[in-house]
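Fill in residues.
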């Protein structure tokens, strides 16, 4: 890919491969960028140059053409290039790569444990807390698609360490006066709105529930700043 200053008011971009060309064409149309297209050339107005430069990531030409088959965003392409993901990894994790690239708080780590097994982690960048962890065999990696989709679609994004802190705070500060064994209870967190949660404890034998409504908590740190409302804290 190259660009040249053309007729003083336009820029000419050349994109040689079919997949990249089709991807670039779709991006221009979706973003209402006016252009002229002939063969592998795109003529872009000077006023849109800054946007197009943003659209085309660094070393655009060096990014392998296969990545353009999965409707990956420009930001994700740069992410792929910087992380040096392989073709096989992109095929399996294309949805996750897009999601991570669009969420600046998160990072994706893919590490090979041996010749057969690979580990995938999604973490918060600043706390390093693990949100998603899966060890898998690439031969069976397609089965990961559903689990990845469930993670992406989940309303609550609380890391392992933050979740343990939430449970500890609930038992120590909100339910300390109850003569029950909290080891018998599972804990589930439901997101009602941006910072309003319900914390549901369910007895694994009787299935009876303790519900703390209107909990204000930080998904990243696990800090609970308030729980309950004017009608009382607990609902059975």
């Amino acid at each position: 890919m190259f660009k040249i200053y053309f007729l003083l008011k336009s820029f000419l971009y050349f994109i040689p491969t079919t997949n990249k060309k089709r991807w670039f064409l779709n991006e221009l149309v979706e973003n209402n960028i006016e252009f002229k297209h002939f063969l592998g050339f795109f003529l872009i107005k000077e006023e849109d140059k800054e946007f197009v430069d943003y659209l085309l990531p660094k070393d655009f030409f060096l990014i392998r053409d296969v990545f353009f088959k999965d409707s990956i965003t420009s930001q994700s392409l740069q992410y792929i290039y910087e992380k040096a993901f392989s073709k096989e990894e992109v095929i399996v994790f294309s949805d996750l790569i897009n999601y991570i690239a669009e969420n600046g708080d998160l990072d994706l780590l893919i590490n090979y444990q041996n010749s057969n097994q690979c580990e995938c982690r999604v973490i918060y960048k600043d706390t390093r807390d693990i949100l998603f962890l899966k060890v898998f065999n690439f031969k069976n990696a397609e089965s990961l698609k559903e689990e990845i989709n469930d993670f992406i679609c989940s309303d609550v994004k609380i890391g392992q360490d933050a979740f343990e802190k939430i449970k500890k705070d609930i038992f120590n500060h909100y339910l300390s006066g109850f003569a029950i064994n909290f080891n018998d209870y599972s804990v589930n967190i439901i997101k009602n709105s941006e910072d309003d949660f319900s914390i549901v404890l369910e007895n694994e034998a009787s299935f009876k529930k303790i519900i703390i409504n209107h909990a204000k908590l930080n998904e990243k740190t696990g800090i609970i700043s308030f729980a309950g409302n004017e009608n009382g804290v607990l609902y059975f």
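Residues 1-6, 230-236 have pLDDT under 50 and may be disordered.
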